[in-house]
Amino acid sequence: YASELLVRGGIGRLTIVDADTIQPSNINRQLIATHSRIGEPKARVLAERLRDINPEVELEVIEDFLKDENMVELLDRHRYDFVVDAIDSLSPKVYLIALARERGLPIVSSMGAGAKSDPSKIHQADLAHSYNCTLARALRKRLRKLGISRGVPVVFSSELPDESAVLEIEGERCKRSTAGTISYMPALFGCQLAAYVLQHIHASSAIPPQHAPTGN
């Protein structure tokens, strides 16, 4: 959702990283997941969709997991205007945030949408001010060990999770279970992530008020 909204919002160059393939369990909540595309790489299907929206968009498509050994090379390959972290595994999430901070790259990170259902409880905030989110709590703990206690913008839900929503899943690598996710919550998280990026890029490139053009 975030990448599509960024392209629709005028972003013309993106790097997409995802090693997963589309599974039946994705259909309830993921924009690119349809029965006709089951088994296909998510990054590739998303790239097709983005190019259909803007044929001139420049895409680097990486069908791989973000791991310690490739993350440094990837972040050093380009000077990114923004990094959007939508990783749902803790260790690579921690490493990506730490590397982005180390390089002075702006980053916004998505917390967990699973076991949540109230759209009004989705917020943008510093990670230090997030609450009622298991992933955010674990992320804060790990980042503190690296000397990072604030300055990490996140999108999170303050709603208390429904503990009965944990589901066993099959067919997705590196996962044994997941918190059930209602269809609209990932979309709303994606909207918030895209809005954060677009607003901050606009603010950083805006003409200062004293130099703004005027007209009759």
Characterization of the model:
The protein is α/β, with parallel strands linked by helices. The protein has a single domain (2-204), classed as NAD(P)-binding Rossmann-like Domain (Rossmann fold, 3-Layer(aba) Sandwich), CATH 3.40.50.720. Helices cover 35% and strands 15% of the residues. The protein has helices at residues 2-8, 42-53, 68-77, 90-102, 134-145, 184-205; strands at residues 13-17, 58-62, 83-85, 107-110, 122-126, 153-157, 166-168, 177-179. The strands form 3 sheets. A 4-stranded mixed sheet has the order 3-4-6-5, sandwiched between helices. β7 and β8 (177-179) form a beta hairpin. α1 runs parallel beside α2 (42-53) and α1 crosses α6 (184-205). The radius of gyration is 18 Å and the shape is globular. Residues 207-216 have low confidence and may be disordered.
- Helices and strands, in order, run as HEHEHEHEEHEEEH
CA(first)-CA(last) distance: 40 Å
Adjacency order of strands in the biggest sheet: 3-4-6-5
Shape by Cα distribution = globular
Spatial extent as radius of gyration: 18 Å
> Overall mean pLDDT score?
91
**Low-pLDDT windows of residues:** 207-216
Largest sheet: 4 strands, mixed
Quaternary structure annotation: single chain
Helix percent band:
25-40%
Question: Helices and strands in order, then pairings?
Answer:
Elements: H1 2-8, E1 13-17, H2 42-53, E2 58-62, H3 68-77, E3 83-85, H4 90-102, E4 107-110, E5 122-126, H5 134-145, E6 153-157, E7 166-168, E8 177-179, H6 184-205
Parallel strand pairs: 1-2, 3-4, 4-6
Antiparallel strand pairs: 5-6, 7-8
